[in-house]
Amino acid sequence: MTERTRRPLRIRLFLLFEALTFLIAATVHFGAFGPAYRHYPAGTAETVIGGVLLLGLLLSLLRSGWTRPVAIGAQGFALLGTIVGLVTIAIGVGPRTVPDLVYHLLIIAALAWGLAVAWRS
Prior knowledge:
81% helix, mainly alpha, 121 residues, elongated
């Protein structure tokens, strides 16, 4: 496999990983692990973001020439949404637990890394 064929695969793996983490976070906020972390607005936002990332993955598989722009758009949307989530935590609107804060910081790093990979390809 050449570098040229590995790039789209790498981008798609980022999209898949990011989408799955958002969907897992949504299940937590919808109460799958008990009421302590239940927060329906956060779960809804994470579902939308995860859906956009999955749609980006699907489009990149259907039209390989779209991989780069779709990945940049989907991950950019996810990054913006995550920053909004971090702001809601900071102002006290969203859930203010340590796992929420850690997740936001880690997914921002993953999204930034994924955007850099897509941008350079």
